[in-house]
Write a structure and sequence with these properties.
This protein is of the alpha+beta class. The chain has five helices and five strands. The protein binds tetrahydrodeoxyuridine.
Length: 142
């Protein structure tokens, strides 16, 4: 696991704090798995989200897509970094649906996940989703 240019960057530190704060606001009474996410825009802006579950289980949403929705609503569509915070024993990557949602806007996204137990891991979205469905596919369907 490498921690190249990201280590010590101000945006990384503020995104880590934003992800943790969002995690603490997560609504996860069914899974008891709280997640916070913070997306860092190319302009340095930070948008956070948390998982919001529902008694109708499929209506719940992941933290990552919550952060993405907040960013797009805030006018930011290009991102350098996603930070995810959980209380899991080991760092976890975003789920497959979130990978697909993120790749639409940030194919080269760097992802850092850390846990409140001190674990940390990094991935690139391209590594986690090597063969994404992209907008280009829709223009070649006829
Ligand atoms: N969850 C996220 O919010 N992000 C992830 O990266 C993995 C899973 C949520 C969905 C659900 O509320 C809970 O965690 C358990 O799957």
């Amino acid at each position: 696991m490498t921690r190249p240019a990201l280590a010590g960057a101000p945006s990384l530190e503020s995104a880590r704090a934003a992800a943790l704060a969002a995690m603490q606001r997560a609504y996860a009474p069914y899974s008891d798995f709280r997640v916070g996410a913070a997306l860092v825009g190319v302009d340095g802006s930070v948008f956070a989200g948390c998982n919001v579950e529902n008694s109708a289980y499929p209506a719940g949403i992941c933290a990552e897509r919550g952060a993405l929705a907040a960013a797009v609503a805030g006018g930011v569509r290009r991102f350098d970094l996603l930070v995810v915070a959980t209380e899991a024993d080991a760092p976890t990557p975003p789920c497959g649906m979130c990978r697909q949602a993120l790749v639409e806007f940030a194919p080269d996204l760097a992802i850092v996940t850390y846990t409140t137990h001190g674990g940390e891991a990094q991935w690139s979205l391209a590594t986690l989703l090597p063969h994404p469905f992209t907008p280009a596919a829709l223009s070649h369907h006829q």
